[in-house]
Fold Acetolactate synthase small subunit.
Amino acid sequence: MSPLNIKTGSTSHSAYDLRDPYAEVIESHTLAVIVDNEPGVLARVIGLFSGRGYNIESLTVAETDHTGHLSRITIVTRGTPQIIAQIKAQLARIVPVHEVHDLTEEGPSVQRELALFKVAGKGEHRIEALRLAEIFRAHVVDSTLESFVFEMTGTPEKIDSFAELMRPLGLREIARTGVAALARGA
């Protein structure tokens, strides 16, 4: 009898299928954490991740409520569903944390990131870099005879795609802000 794949409900018919049908899928999740804006809170949140060996792929933080002294920390992390559930539960137990939202599970969200790209090049490479920047809606924010600095806002995937296209054209540096995200709708 063929093993049942728990995720898809289908059976495997090949004797050469070496995938573990019971292995958990690693997922990327975007978490929005509302915290008191006070010294040491960010260190405690990051300490939770580093102390348990969880990775942070993206981290942004800023005060969002001046009168209430609240900040929003947006964290993109990866893990199995069990690991993500542990992260959320442990974040919720930190005293200055008011709310933990998993934007990935709560429904559609808008995610954007700002990036700056320094691209050095002359001749055809320079022309191609400008052409691609126009396609990706990147703006030239600095220009010299030998390089450009492009500014672009978009999804992390769009930023990654633009970077890959710029590498052979002379990409020298990238600065990224990290993901900012909000749930869609009311």
Notes: The CA atoms of residues 53 and 154 lie 29 Å apart. The longest strand covers residues 109-120.
